[in-house]
Amino acid sequence: MSHLFPELPYAYDSLEPYLDAKTMEVHYSKHHRTYYDKFIAAIAGSDLEAARLEEIFANVSQLSPAVRNNGGGYYNHILYWNCMAPNGGGQPSGQLAQAITQTFGSFSEFQEQFAQAAVNTFGSGFVWLIVKDGQLEIVSTPNQDNPLMDVASTQGEPILALDVWEHAYYISYQNRRPEYIDAWWNVVNWSAIEDNYRQAIA
């Protein structure tokens, strides 16, 4: 089987005080695990078992809602976890930093636009920094959709993901999504995102 459930790349309490251990434990071991288990069940016995996620998402409009929703939840969370780190925060460097400045004017302006996209995402969903035709763009998707899917209004290669479902932050922040977003910047793993960017433009 080509689709495996990855280990969380750090301990549940590693992102405190910004993301609490209980939220991380429930989010990873319950929510993410359930998406994975349901995705595996949805593709069992089909050719999709051997297909890459990118291939599945490219034609997801032709597949069942179970594959779309749970496959998205499986993939989206992997990127979300890997976009954070215990010693995160700060600013990107190198090519990514240059591209952000070129596209948005400054890193602070990028943060403002990204945060506003997250605050203004209605209900549940994700906010992304993507590479589309070699250029950076901020987009949001509802529920567990992502920019690799053919149903996305804007498609591209995701390099940064922010989960704005309430279960990602409710224990610590309740309905105060802007506070969660402000805290999240302190754990962003810019080194990993720079790697994602380099791969996306290669």
From TrEMBL:
Keyword Ribosomal protein among UniProt keywords: no
Coiled-coil regions, chain positions: none
Positions of the Manganese/iron superoxide dismutase N-terminal domain: 3-85
Pfam families: Sod_Fe_C, Sod_Fe_N
EC number annotated for this UniProt entry: 1.15.1.1
Catalysed reaction equations from the record: 2 superoxide + 2 H(+) = H2O2 + O2
Stretches that traverse the bilayer: none
Keywords of this entry: Metal-binding, Oxidoreductase
Domain Manganese/iron superoxide dismutase C-terminal, residue spans: 92-195
Protein function: Destroys radicals which are normally produced within the cells and which are toxic to biological systems.
Name listed for the protein in its UniProt record: Superoxide dismutase
Species this protein is from: Vibrio ponticus
Lineage of the species this protein comes from: Bacteria, Pseudomonadati, Pseudomonadota, Gammaproteobacteria, Vibrionales
